[in-house]
């Protein structure tokens, strides 16, 4: 996902953030650049901040509303939304008798690893086609998020294993997104007030819908780790979610 992380006045506007989503060909970047045209089950473009699971009925995707489709790549609509944002800011500045904010270059930060670099170079190219000036900022080794004032939006590979717990860590005002959006805050509070599992799941689906509309973070795609092992190694198991999940059961066949 892409996480706004500065006081950049345009990125603070949800219409402009929506323009960035429409101006990003996520399918092309995922399938062409990251997967290199390979079909990998579970790898897909997302419409929200939570994992979708490997298939529609996967329990790991319990917080993901499958009925909400990811936004398509529509660069003309992206340009229109950018124009609307600028006009709205000019109108607001005129009303207040102030100077309208300038659309400054956007600093896009990414961790120092190959897939993130490839993805962000592709995103930069597509955003430049919209007329935006983009500066790539490679983070120091071991850092996953930029220091304040060093970037405007960050490419984050987030492992959201337990959405009930991780929702506030990702979307809350003290979380990665630092969101102060009232609807997002209401969704988080309602989730935390859940009395049972059904309530929690329903409110997570509501939060997915809110995040899709308000865009406190810009969803990109879901990548699924794969692994290979020798046929002589027994006890690995199936549908594991981490590489060494059943390591205590591993044994070599005789």
UniProtKB/TrEMBL annotation:
Matching Gene3D superfamilies: Dipeptide-binding Protein, Domain 3, Periplasmic binding protein-like II
GO biological process: peptide transport
InterPro entries: SBP_5
Molecular-function GO term, any one: peptide transmembrane transporter activity
Protein name in UniProt: Periplasmic dipeptide transport protein
Lineage: Bacteria, Pseudomonadati, Planctomycetota, Planctomycetia, Pirellulales
């Amino acid at each position: 996902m892409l996480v706004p992380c500065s006081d950049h006045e345009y990125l603070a506007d949800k219409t402009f953030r929506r323009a960035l989503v429409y101006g990003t060909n996520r399918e092309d970047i995922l399938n062409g650049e990251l997967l290199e045209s390979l079909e990998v089950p579970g790898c897909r473009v997302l419409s929200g901040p939570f994992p979708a699971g490997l298939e529609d009925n996967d329990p790991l995707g319990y917080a993901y509303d499958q009925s909400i489709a990811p936004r398509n790549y529509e660069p003309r609509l992206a340009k229109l939304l950018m124009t609307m944002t600028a006009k709205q800011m000019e109108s607001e500045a005129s009303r207040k008798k102030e100077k309208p904010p300038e659309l400054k270059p956007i600093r896009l930060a990414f961790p120092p690893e190959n897939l993130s670099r490839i993805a962000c170079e592709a995103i930069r190219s597509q955003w430049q086609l919209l007329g935006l000036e983009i500066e790539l900022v490679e983070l120091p080794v071991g850092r996953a998020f930029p220091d304040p004032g060093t970037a405007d939006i960050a490419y984050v590979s987030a492992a959201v294993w337990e959405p009930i717990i991780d929702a506030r860590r990702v979307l809350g005002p003290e979380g990665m997104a630092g969101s102060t959006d009232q609807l997002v805050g209401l969704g988080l509070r309602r989730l935390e007030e859940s009395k049972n599992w059904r309530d929690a799941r329903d409110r997570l689906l509501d939060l997915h819908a809110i995040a899709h509309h308000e865009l406190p973070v810009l969803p990109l795609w879901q990548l699924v780790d794969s692994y290979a092992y020798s046929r002589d190694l027994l006890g690995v198991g199936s549908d594991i979610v981490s590489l060494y999940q059943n390591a205590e059961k591993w044994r070599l066949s005789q």
